[in-house]
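pinned: reference chain
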Amino acid sequence: MTSTTEPTEPLSVEQLSATTLLRFATAGSVDDGKSTLVGRLLHDSKSILTDQLEAVERASASRGQDTPDLALLTDGLRAEREQGITIDVAYRYFATARRRFILADTPGHVQYTRNMVTGASTADLAVVLVDARNGVIEQTRRHAAVAALLRVPHVVLAVNKMDLVEYEESVFAAIAEEFTAYASELGVPEITAIPISALAGDNVVDPSANMDWYGGPTVLEHLETVPVSHDLAHCHARLPVQYVIRPQTAEHPDYRGYAGQIAAGAFRVGEAVTVLPSGRSSRISAIDLLGEPVDTAWTTQSVTVLLEDDIDISRGDLIVPSKDAPPTTQDIEATVCHVADAALTVGHRVLLKHGTRTVKAIVKDIPSRLTLDDLSLHPHPGQLVANDIGRVKIRTSEPLPVDSYADSRRTGSFILIDPADGTTLTAGMVGESFAAPEPVKDESDDDGWDF
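pinned: its structure tokens
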């Protein structure tokens, strides 16, 4: 039974945790133990079914293993199970008494780093694993850079396999110090370091008896209590139009609704709104949510908005508050992660998908590529290859209403698509930059492009 009493005091962290969903991603180099950590989380939090555990026990026994290999709980592809590695992004849903979780277990191989972009793009938290024997390596830095680029607000450094370094505090401290310094330089806002042994279960769900020098939370405890921001008052309200609803029935002869999922913020009946890129304005006359009228709708809710005026609106348009409209532009500068095997080059003709709108575009320039070892910028590389992170300048055929990625992860992001076969080439974040690249001469006035 749901109470109808409105809360008079702000929710505490514990109360908020019980009512919120945490999306988090795991990342790390090959054999750092990501799948084992996820399996341990699911197993020790009693979030797996009996038949799932029995299947893992049988598979482990067939390999000659005395104990269940918990990594098999997440390695779903046959190639993953046979090779003992993670290839695809594996999503898992589970819950404890304090919080619900959507977990994305991402691959560790360099050639699958692009998959981390997929897994972490909507994450509130990223768990970056490090093998205590190896410390911070290039792939660790790459994962930290992707987490920073995607503005994941919370990063957990899980120093795994502490049992193989005799649970030495000095080993953990040195790795935590190095990683924290590097990630802080990237701009990661919050870093929590936890020493663990996923195989033995130390500090994953239950506190470890082998590391009495550590007084912080276990991995699960931190996941259950880390604050997830739900303050919508400071979000830029954005509604990408996905579908125009016109039933044209005798009961609703004049009904014209604009349906979509609210990307950010909140909309209210009576609010003045502007439709972009046309710039036409009106007021919200009604909001339908699940077939019922409501006065206010929030982020992630799928709604149908009705306006007071009859305006030409179609799929791909963006409805925004008139007092908080983003600028429209045909020139976009962004930091991107290239995810395709084929290189992205200057002059490349692509499709750019922003929200529900797709337009033609041309890559005008690639000012720099990020070198992960020292965070330096390699100027004018000419191209980006798979897993490269770099800066690009793009010219679109039509004006687009884009936010800075720092202001809105949903409406400040885009993907570039190969128009020949529909392959996703690049994931981009508008305005994001680790450092300012060297200025590049703009020759767009006489380059011969037709937009």
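why pinned: Confidence is low (pLDDT under 50) at residues 1-19, 76-87, 435-449. The helical segments are 13-19, 34-44, 50-62, 78-83, 113-120, 138-149, 169-186, 219-225.
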